[in-house]
Design goal:
By secondary structure, this protein is mostly helical. It has ten helices and no strands. Helix 3 crosses helix 4. About 6% of the residues have low confidence.
Length: 195
């Protein structure tokens, strides 16, 4: 484990400990460390700055209320999951009223085209098992491929933004994403998940 990762985990453990002690500064520390990440995740789902700020605040409130009974193993993943859930719920509410342009819509449609069938994965296999398989597959990829996949399908980032970060062309990014999705589909099928 790298020294930087150890420092990050130690800092996250301290933040979680602050929540356990009901120290109000825990919220500020969370905002300092993860505020921009949370805002970006919410923005990629909602495309509305005001909604993103509300999602951030709701995230801090939910984390404040949940942590004394829950001690997350990965604080970063935990807060991202909370903000995603909140933003998705807000997206559902808003989409009942009108169609919202969103990276969420684009990325879900893109992924559906690659791994869709008449029977959902959830009907055939336990979601945790499929998640484990996807995680195993992602660990088999190189760092750039992992970055592309996670940014696109977990963080819901536009492909253009990730391509710029990685200093590759947008066409290269799309080609690699297509290759990754095809590889994931084959990997799942080899493990008995037909999509």
């Amino acid at each position: 484990m790298s020294e930087e990762k150890k420092l990050q985990e130690t800092a996250d453990e301290k933040i979680v400990e602050m929540y356990w002690k009901r120290d109000p500064d825990a919220i500020q520390e969370t905002d300092n460390k993860y505020g921009s990440l949370l805002w970006t995740v919410a923005y990629n789902i909602l495309s509305d700055e005001q909604d993103c700020e509300e999602c951030q605040n709701d995230t801090y409130f939910n984390v404040w209320n949940a942590i004394p009974s829950t001690r997350p193993s990965s604080f970063a993943a935990y807060v991202v999951q909370v903000v995603k859930r909140i933003a998705l719920n807000r997206y559902k509410e808003k989409s009942r009223q009108k169609r919202i342009p969103s990276q969420l819509t684009i990325s879900i449609e893109d992924l559906k085209k690659s791994i869709s069938s008449g029977v959902t994965v959830e009907e055939e296999y336990d979601v945790k098992e499929v998640s484990r398989m996807i995680s195993e597959y992602l660990w088999s990829l190189n760092e750039r491929q992992q970055h592309l996949f996670i940014d696109r399908y977990y963080m819901l980032e536009p492909v253009e933004k990730t391509a710029a970060e990685l200093q590759i062309s947008v066409q290269t990014a799309y080609r690699e994403l297509t290759k990754i999705k095809q590889g994931l589909k084959k990997y799942l099928e080899r493990n008995g998940v037909y999509v």
